[in-house]
């Protein structure tokens, strides 16, 4: 389920995957959680200004993470700081002996180091990306006149099928607005698909309607028909953004990953060719991939395409959480 969240997020915002990789690269600055009792009684804004060679981006309190609390939030001695800094080790002691005992609201001549500025911009961009794409939900049932801002109305063509596609569908439902259409193209029989994406699940979706089309995704005419039909559908006029998303089809997963990656890449390139020849404007052309190196090679030639190695990123998240279990709350919050 987390991999589906990650894939949908990255498929909707180009560059987000690069930010995640930066925060998971042990050779760069990453998330670290430090216990520094000296900050007890200080305001968050003062702590943020006084910690050097790191970016303070939140506090860990009572088992939960709080990103960027209010400037006047007073920290407790039991609070831990969430920093973006070098990997724990040589630098860890530096943060525990910082000169942060002066409890004053005044701070002068403070400037972050260049690497800290880069890390700060990474966090800022990450938060802006999440806010830009997320659909705000009311905490309880409200009248239409007082509802929160809804997401955009879009059309999504998912090329490929596997039973766990339901996680991806639910995630798209969280991001898209009412009237959105999601069509699935695959050779898998519709009877098998509707046993998974059943009427009960469809009734639980608030913003998207799921439709199905049977056919070989790697067949030019079949894929062309699917793209043109969803573009011409009554509920998907030319002003509604269209995205083509290629995922590993169940049958493709039977073979080796190298062959599956080739099929994924071929299908996405085919979709791009169809859209260009038929003058179809497409917002996102994105595909899953295992070999991220292959994906990078293709995007150098075809920059309009995006390849997402969600499983690779999830393995990096798992490795980071294995070293520090408290970081699990950090990534849960980011991917929620």
TrEMBL record:
Database matches in InterPro entries: CASTOR/POLLUX/SYM8-like, CASTOR/POLLUX/SYM8_dom
Signal peptide positions on this chain: none
Residues annotated as domain CASTOR/POLLUX/SYM8 ion channel conserved: 1-99
GO annotation terms (biological process): monoatomic ion transport
Pfam families linked to this entry: Castor_Poll_mid
Membrane topology: Multi-pass membrane protein
Protein name in UniProt: CASTOR/POLLUX/SYM8 ion channel conserved domain-containing protein
Source organism phylogeny: Eukaryota, Viridiplantae, Streptophyta, Embryophyta, Tracheophyta
Subcellular location per the Swiss-Prot or TrEMBL entry: Membrane
Keywords for the protein's UniProt record, in alphabetical order: Membrane, Transmembrane, Transmembrane helix
Predominant subcellular localization, coarse grouping: membrane
A cellular component term, taken from the record's GO annotations: membrane
Stretches assigned to coiled coil: none
UniProt superkingdom: Eukaryota
């Amino acid at each position: 389920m987390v991999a589906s969240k990650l894939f949908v997020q990255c498929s909707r915002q180009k560059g987000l995957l690069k930010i995640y990789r930066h925060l998971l690269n042990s050779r760069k600055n990453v998330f670290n959680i430090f216990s520094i009792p000296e900050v007890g009684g200080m305001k968050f804004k003062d702590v943020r200004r006084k910690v050097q060679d790191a970016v303070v981006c939140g506090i860990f309190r009572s088992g939960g993470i709080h990103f960027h609390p209010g400037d006047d939030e007073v920290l407790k001695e039991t609070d831990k700081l969430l920093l973006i800094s070098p990997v724990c080790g040589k630098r860890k002691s530096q943060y525990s002996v910082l000169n942060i005992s002066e409890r004053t609201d005044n701070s002068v001549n403070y400037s972050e180091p260049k690497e800290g500025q880069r890390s700060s911009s990474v966090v800022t961009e990450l938060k802006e990306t999440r806010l830009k794409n997320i659909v705000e939900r009311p905490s309880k049932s409200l009248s239409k006149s007082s509802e929160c801002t809804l997401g955009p109305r879009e059309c999504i063509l998912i090329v490929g099928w596997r039973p766990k596609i339901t996680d991806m569908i639910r995630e798209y439902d969280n991001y898209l607005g009412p009237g959105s259409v999601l069509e699935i193209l695959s050779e898998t029989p519709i009877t098998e698909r509707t046993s998974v994406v059943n009427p009960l699940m469809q009734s639980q979706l608030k913003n998207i309607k799921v439709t199905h089309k049977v056919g070989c995704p790697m067949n030019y005419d079949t894929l062309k028909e699917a793209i043109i039909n969803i573009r011409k559908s009554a509920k998907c006029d030319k002003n509604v953004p269209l995205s083509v998303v290629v995922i590993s089809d169940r049958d493709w997963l039977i073979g080796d990953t190298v062959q599956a990656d080739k099929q994924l890449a071929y299908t996405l390139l085919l979709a791009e060719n169809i859209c260009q020849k038929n003058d179809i404007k497409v917002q996102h052309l994105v595909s899953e991939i295992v070999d991220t190196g292959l994906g990078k090679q293709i995007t150098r030639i075809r920059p309009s395409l995006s390849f997402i190695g969600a499983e690779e990123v999830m393995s990096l998240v798992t490795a980071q959480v294995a070293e520090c279990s408290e970081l699990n709350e950090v990534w849960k919050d980011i991917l929620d």
